[in-house]
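Record passed on underneath.
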Amino acid sequence: MNLPGSMMIAFSMYSRIPVPQVQWTKERMKYAMCFFPLIGAVIGLLEYGAILLFRTLGFPFLEQIMPVVIPVLVTGGIHMDGLLDVIDAKSSHGEIEKKLEILKDPHTGAFAIIGCGIYFLLYVAFFMEIRPVMLPAYCVVFVITRALSGLSVVTFPMAKKSGLAVAFSDGAHKRVVGAVMVLYLLISLLGVWLLTGVEAFFVVFAISFGVFLYYYRMAKREFGGITGDLAGYFLQILELALVMGLAILSHMSL
C-alpha cells in the first residue's frame, strides 16, 4: 500500500495544487479516490480564509465574488467541464448513444454556454444571501460533494467501458473506498451540526440525499450509468443546491 502516492494521484487529477508526479500504478489506484474529499477540505479552508481576508481589508465585492471563483481555480474547472458537457448532452433529448457521443465531443455547445452563465449567476446571487453564521457549513460543503461523487464512482453502474470514471472505479478497492467516503460524510455532517446547528444539518442532509437520488435515477435513465462528466455534473449541481439551501435557511433563521 502506497497511500502518499495514492494521494498524489488524486490531487494531480482533480486539482491544480502542485504535487510531486507519481506513476499511476495498480496499487496506488486502489486508494486514490480515498483522498478526493481532501481537495474539498483544502477548498473549504481557502474559502474561509479568503472571506475573512477580504472582510478585514474592507473589500465586500471580493468577499462575495472570490468564494465563487476559488473552487474553479483550485480544480482547474474539471468538474465544471463535466457540468457543461452533460447540459449539452441532456439538451439534445436524443437516445443514450447520442448523449454519450456528445459527452465525448470536445466542442462546447450553445446550451452549455447558457447553462454556465445561469449557474454562476445563481451561485453568486444565493451566496450573497448566506449569513456569516452559515459560512462554516458552506465551507464543509466541498467535502460532502466530493465524498458523494466518489461514492457514486465506486457504487453506481458505469455507462461506458472506458474513460476516467471507469479507470478510477475499476482500479479502486471499492469496499474500502466506499467505507472511507461514508466516513467523510458522517464527519462532515457532524461538523455542520456542531459548527452551524441542527437546522443546517437537516437542510444539508436532505438536499444531499435528494440530489444524490436524482443523480442516480437520471444517470441510469438518460445515460445508462455514470461517466466522469456525470460525476462532475453531480458535484456542481449539489454544490449549487447546497448554497441555495443555506441561503434560504439564512433568511428563515432571521
The chain has a mean pLDDT of 90. The chain has one domain: 3-252. DSSP finds twelve helices and no strands in the chain. Residues 3-252 form one domain.
